[in-house]
Amino acid sequence: MAEHAKPRGTSDLTPEEAFAWQGVEELLRATFHAYHFREIRTPVFEHTEVFERGVGDTTDIVQKEMYTFTDRGGRSMTLRPEGTAGVARAFVEHKWYGGPLPLKLYYMGPIFRYEKPQAGRYRQHQQYGVEALGSVDPRLDAEVIQLADRFLRAAGVQSLRLELNSVGCPACRATHRDLLLAHLTPVREELCADCQGRLEKNPLRVLDCKIDRDHPVVLQSPTITDHLCDDCAAHFAGVKAGLDALDVPYTVNKVLVRGLDYYTRTAFEFMEDSIGAMSTILGGGRYDGLVRLLGGPETAGIGFAGGMERLMLARQANGVAEDGADTVDAYVIGLGEGGRMAALKVARELRDAGVATEVDYTGRSLKAQLKTADRLQARAAVLIGDDEVAAGVASVRELVEKQQAAVPLRQVAGHVARLVASVRERG
Ligand code: HAM
Question: Probe ligand 1: pick from 106, 310, 311, 315, max atoms within 8 Å of CB?
Answer without folding.
Answer: 310
